[in-house]
Structure formats: C-alpha cells, structure tokens
C-alpha cells in the first residue's frame, strides 16, 4: 500500500499540499485581493472533502440527479474493425450530457456550504455553463456564465439551455472571443464579488486549489471505470487509458483512477490547442503550466473545431505528468475528429462530442499505424455527447462519406 501511495504521489495525483504545486507547476498567481479567497476555498474544500456528510450529499446528487454510475460500453463493431478491445466510459450519458456535471455539483455544494448565493463560471463548448446552471438551479443559487462571442455563435443550443435554466450568459468580446478570454473575464468579475459568489472553474486550471479540487470531483470517472474494467477485462487493467484534453478535467479524473497501475495514459489535444504537447512554461489564469506562446512569451490563440478544446494550455498536473513521463500527450486535427465522430456513429450508434472524438481519433490513428498492438485493451472516456455539435458538423458537410 505504501508503495502504491508513493507511486501516486511521485506521479503527481495526490494532495498538492498548501502551496498547490505539482512539481514546478501549479501555485496561485492571483491578484492580492484574491489570495485570501483562494486560501479560504482551499481550506473549505479540504474540510468538506473529509466530512462524510458532504461526501454523502454529493454521492446522492451524482446518483439521483446526474445518473451515476455511468456505464462502460464495449465498442464491439469498432473494436473488430480496429483489431483492439475498446471500452467507452460513458460520461455522455450523464444528466446534461457531459462529465462537467460531476464538478459543477461538487462546487455548487461547496459554495452553499460556504454561504455563497451565486456561482460564476466560464464556458467554451457550453457544457460547463449548462452544468453550472443546472447545479445552481438545483441548489437554489444564481448563476452568471461568461462565454466568448465566437462560442456563443457556434454553441447556440447550449446558450439557450443555460438561459432556460435561469442563468445569465455574459458575452465576452475580447481577444479570440473564446474560452481563454471568458476565463479572464470571469476572474476579473470574481474579484469584486468574492463575499457573495463562488467562482466555479470548469477544468483543472486556475490557481490552487482549483486543479486539485476539480480533479478530485472528477476522479469519480476513473474510480468507477477501474472497478468496471476489473469486471470486464481478463487483465483487470486496460493497456491504454485515453481521454481528450482541453484544460484536462475529464482526463485528470480518468487518469486518477489508473495512475498507480501499469496502464499507459494518453491525453489527446486539439492540434490547434496543444498546450501540453507543444507549449512552454508560463503563467496564465493563476497557475504555472504549459501554454502556447510566441517568442516574446505572449499567449498564442488556440483554434479547434471543438470549442471545449480551444484553450492555449493545460492544467498544471498534466504538465507535471508529462514531465514525469507518466502520461503522454498527442495532437489530433479537426478533420480527424470529424471523421471519428462519423465512424463511431456508424459503428456503435453513438454521436460523440467533438471534444471526445479527438481521443477516439488518436485511437483510430494509433491502431491503424500498428502503434496499438493487436488485441490491446483501451479504455476511452467519452466525455460528452454530440448534440451541441450537430450544426458545426452540418456546416462542414461532414456527412458526405464516412472516413
Ligand atoms: C464534452 C466535453 N469534453 C471535454 C471538454 C474539455 O474539457 P476538459 O479538458 O476539462 O475535460 C469539454 C469542455 O467544454 C467538453 O464540453
């Protein structure tokens, strides 16, 4: 047991301590006025997580409201085509349609415990905004969601869903008008309202304690999947564990369940937002991590057909896992992701979110290139469903021919 714990700590998926460091990454680079607030959130989270009452309330909400545990679906026809054994962890089947609900419910419960009446959030694909609006409605909190104007255009369905749930959606017109700018704007707004509002960050990014807290709320994915794999696979543990990475919350939650096993961990980024694979050390949104930057150290805008992967960096724990060699990070193009959506739809009857399709596209590529040995067992987290992406796929005339 000690050996396992040591390996988990060495791999960076334990408690990052009061400084919130994962190796040289993480920390809390926030304005003076937010230092005390972040310290308070960290302390409240630490206490809540060790309180059985809090954990029971969250488990109950995840069960009766969000629909956990999510199934593990063998992708039988696609597995045969690829010559591997592919298992899908079905976060797309949660209430609201993505893994984001796990974290939103956790943080909403924490906000209520801290006596806050409002949630602030940023969103890219809109899934975290919808999850936050849902959790707020359920727990009687107000929600304000910051969203880039470009994402508002391409994710109109989710904007309407948030408004239907009673949330205020605030358009952000600065910079690339996508997720990164929405995050900056939400942080700026938070500074003035910390006594009433909790900032519910949607990924494993931002200052301490967010990367640790969000991963802790998302590790339910990996813990469930570990038990399910043990029942499904003769080897108990899959050879590969694969998940898409925007900031990296579904991947961190999944990896946390397997970091102490022999499974190879693979995070898949969008080619135009590959902060882990191609970024450099820097500080953004309150944490040191790996970000796309120009020679002058300015953040470079990210581009992806998947709004949820349109972020120029990754959470600090991913940067650390990469440095340790415990996880590797690969990049996939828009075209490969679109082809993967169609292939999964036509072999398994599942329309995946464009974000999740990046992870699948890497599996398809690696199996085709012989990088995944024949018969390899692969667990892939399907982080969300593709309803929100139907307009984007239609625009791209994606339905001409399957890849
Ligand atoms: C369905 C889905 N998957 C993945 C992501 C990327 O986020 P993360 O890397 O935090 O899991 C998003 C973000 O909006 C999403 O909506």
What does this structure look like?
This protein is α/β, with parallel strands linked by helices and 403 residues long. Helix content is 45%, strand content 17%. It has 16 helices and 14 strands. It has helices at 2-11, 32-49, 52-64, 76-82, 100-113, 127-139, 149-154, 156-164, 179-191, 210-232, 249-256, 275-278, 316-324, 334-348, 354-368, 390-395, and strands spanning 21-22, 25-26, 72-74, 85-90, 118-123, 142-148, 168-172, 197-199, 240-244, 264-270, 280-284, 287-291, 327-332, 377-382. It has a six-stranded mixed β-sheet, with helices on both faces. A four-stranded parallel β-sheet has the order 7-6-5-8, sandwiched between helices. It is globular. The structure holds pyridoxal-5'-phosphate. Pyridoxal-5'-phosphate binds at residues 98, 124-125, 127-128, 203, 244-250, 308-309, 353, 355-356, 383-384.
Descriptive keywords:
four-stranded parallel sheet, alpha/beta, six-stranded mixed sheet, globular, 16 helices, 403 residues, binds pyridoxal-5'-phosphate
Q: What would you call the shape? A: globular
Strand ordering within the main sheet: 3-4-14-9-10-13
User: Which blocks of ≥5 consecutive residues have pLDDT under 50?
Assistant: none
The number of helical segments is 16
Distance between the termini: 46 Å
Ligands bound here?
A: pyridoxal-5'-phosphate
Arithmetic mean of pLDDT: 95
Instruction: Describe the sheet with the most strands.
Output: 6 strands, mixed
Number of strands: 14
Question: What is the rounded Rg?
Answer: 19 Å
